[in-house]
Amino acid sequence: MTKRVVEHATCLGCGCACDDITVVVDGDRIVEARNSCALGRAWFADGSVPRETRAGGKPVAPDVALGDAAKLLARAERPLVYLAPDISCETQRAAVAIADRLGALLDSPTGEIAAGILASQRRGRAGATLGEIRQRADLVVFWGVDPADRYPRYASRYAVDPAGLQAPDGRKSRRVVAVDVGPSRGAADADERVAIAPEHEVDALALMRAVVLGRAIGEDAVARVATGLATRMLHARYVALVHDAEPSPHGSPLHADRTEALIALAQALNGPARCALSSLRAGGNRSGADAVATWQTGFPFAVDFAGGYPRYRPHAGAAVLLARREIDVALLVGSPAGVPQAVAAALGQVTTIAIGPRASAAPFRPTVAIDTGVAGIHEGGTAFRMDDLALPLRPALSGPAVAADVVRALAARLMKGRS
Ligand code: SF4
Prior knowledge:
alpha/beta; Rossmann fold; 2 domains; nine-stranded mixed beta sheet; 14 helices; 19 strands; binds iron/sulfur cluster
């Protein structure tokens, strides 16, 4: 069989959403994903996914599964609609409509980083697209994150290596500073390293901001580190301050104060210098879930329709309500493998309908499971990069059912009151 080539495919293996991937298909299998990193190759794999439709633990026809799902949701007293990764914005939008129709709680893995989102909402943000950072940044500060670990092409595509308008010699035009915060280390190939103890991190950021604002600070060890870092930033033409917005791989809780302090520092620098805070996000179109929820409801996650209109409940999202056993039926749309562990464990305790890639393999054994394709591999549509840039998806394979079609069919049954 001859090989087929799909150019400009978009990888959703991490939030970089690299859209320069050439996928080579042999028969019904992906045999190569050119330009992708190891994480991207693992995400594409060979493109094979299960194609089952199950209800009550048995294989059933799709129509039967949809009928069972509609019945369960129609009877639910406190339903949850959860937007898991690996679905397109079109599918997310259809799922939001179901949450609205049911008066459900709508949530997504963004609930895990609620503290950082709330900090952004309180303070606003000084951000930029990755394209602007590539064109303009001459000082890149990796604050407690080495992008090589979870965002492998961030440095080569955007912030460090490529040439830009104001960085004509690429890497040679830029200075890279790694700030190591305890075990969270900055980029390995930095020009300069600075170590800060985790307990001094927020103080150091506050002192840096004070230096940027021209205030006098003390002369202890933390103040000296802060003065040195802030002075380098003040002398740069354009600073990219890069941090990891996802939960720490070291198991420490996301530090709300850290995010707020980083935002405040980036804002203060936009006066005497220029600075963009670049927040690294995981893949699977997580950023798309935030964008779709915001444009449909006004809020990015933890949106409660129970009162007949969208209410923001960032402190009473899916994880909290599941733990309190307030949810009786959950509709999960997306890949169960991308659901945070605490939520996945709790979904095993309630009646769950799963529609998405590898739904039939969900560890929490959904009552109804409908396998669909993976957005970007089997399904087209739109996904968002970590900097909220919308990108088209170019599928390489035909898959099982299309997630957006299945969710819309379920919505149509609920609208008609059929069961
Ligand atoms: S950096 Fe991320 S988006 Fe790019 S190829 Fe690797 S996993 Fe995929």
